[in-house]
Amino acid sequence: MTEASAAIRQMMQDIGRRARDASRAMARASSEQKNQALLHIAKIVREKATEIAAVNQIDVERAKSSDSDAAFVDRLTMTPKTIETMALGLEQIVSLADPIGKITPLQRQASGIELGQMRVPLGVIGIIYESRPNVTIDAAALCLKSGNAVILRGGSEAIDSNTLLASIIQEGLAAAGLPKDAVQVITTTDRAAVGEMITMTQYIDVIVPRGGKSLIARLMSEARVPMIKHLDGICHTYIDADADIAMAIKVCDNAKTQRYAPCNAMETLLVNQEIAPKVLPELCKIYQDKGVELRVDPLTRKTLETLGFTHLVDATEEDWQTEYLAPILSIKTVAGLDEAMDHIERYGSKHTDAIITNNKNNADRFLREVDSSSVMVNASTRFADGFEYGLGAEIGISNDKLHARGPVGLDGLTSLKYVVMGHGEIRT
Asked: How far apart are alpha carbons 283 and 240 in whole angstroms?
């Protein structure tokens, strides 16, 4: 091990140890303390808005000088609106119910003991993210409200912004009588810090990666700490033979074109062959008018070309397994519900899938048999979001089956432990 590697390891071990110590204080913190910390942070964010913008400009100029593309620079940039949104987000989390310490109704057992489950923090959460410095505030706020300590590792491109925001968070924690070490930002840009972080099982209870596929793929390969994550958002909508055509057009238009970049945007449209001639013409005209490239299977091509459509691209095997995050849509005409669900099972990423139908039996089968973290009937996949689900905010989306699944809000950052209330009972 080189001297530099040893220094990184020592630094990460120290951060982990301090976070573990702080997590005990956070677990016993009152709702009032946590809310006061969040309100203090919101107040300081507003007071230092000019300073935040100035420091962020340093990161932005550095990104521009390294020839980063416009979309990257846009994600990195903090405008006055972005800064105010961070403050409003903190206040919104204050308004959410605190899940910590809640105990389910006690059930008396034959022995006389009473048994329940208590909602408790996970402990120490590590969050690895890229580009967007506002994640520093948003992620820290959710972790604090749920009684956790958090270690934040933002992208090197936002190091100055993230460092300042971390100091603001720590100032707010201190003002509420909570340990500063409950939120720590890793200030080195050395990638070795990530390698240490994802193997520190003695200090970190769960990792939440928020970034591109390359980051998450690396973590899936190397991490020893459990993760809450999803890799792809290959979301499908199936238009059933018994769908309301007007509804199908409205919902499928929204699912694809309301925004292209989010992971809950529809990437593949599946259409029952019976309804395809009735629904595809108007829907595909909408897509093409909005500049969406259509990649189609032979049956869909035949239907559309008969109606005069041009500029169609033949879908390849790769298209069915691609998350475009762009104005591109794959379309396949299927024989029925079974073929649609078979396609989703083969190519889907278990993120979000929807059916448009007025057939209750088909809707019920779709809900039971499609194995995704969110399954919808007659609704846009764009609803797969913590805010839209009434969670207030989300730390990310998980398509795993253990612990948290779907949009992860406050409850997803907690666990349950059994509590036993006795009256002197002994086991015989």
From this structure: 15
